[in-house]
Amino acid sequence: MKYVETKKVLNQAVADLSQLSAMIHQTHWYMRGPQFLKLHPKMDKYMEDVNAQLDEISERLITLDGSPYSTLREWADNSKLSAEPGIWGVPTEKRFEELVTAFRYMTDLYEQGIEVSEKEGDLVTNGIFIDSKGDFEKTIWMLQAELGKAPEIDPETF
Asked: What are the pLDDT digits (tens) for 69-83?
């Protein structure tokens, strides 16, 4: 079998992107505060971006003869991102910090995908992971800027 480890990381990304989309949706629905009119539509954009990655990664997995997780149960059972019930009263800043943590996890997962897909010689998947990681690093930067912080992508600069 070819690309065994690459397919594992791709399917992990399927589960985690599905959970990340739900986390963003929850932020979108439970958001309140003075920046609501600006930030609410931004969550729509983040959901679109995550769902586009989910589609591309799932289709790549199928292209490699893999089988992406495709049910709520599979996503919940396999995602390493936490799922908490939505509640009112959580400040937008706290929700953004949770999203930053989730996006950082995804960049780490994509780094793992970059390494295994290169090792297994799957340069197409490698490019997908590289591009997706860069997109999420930019999202981290933007969320961190909204929180009044530096991106903190390179811990050696702090």
From this structure: 999 999 999 999 998
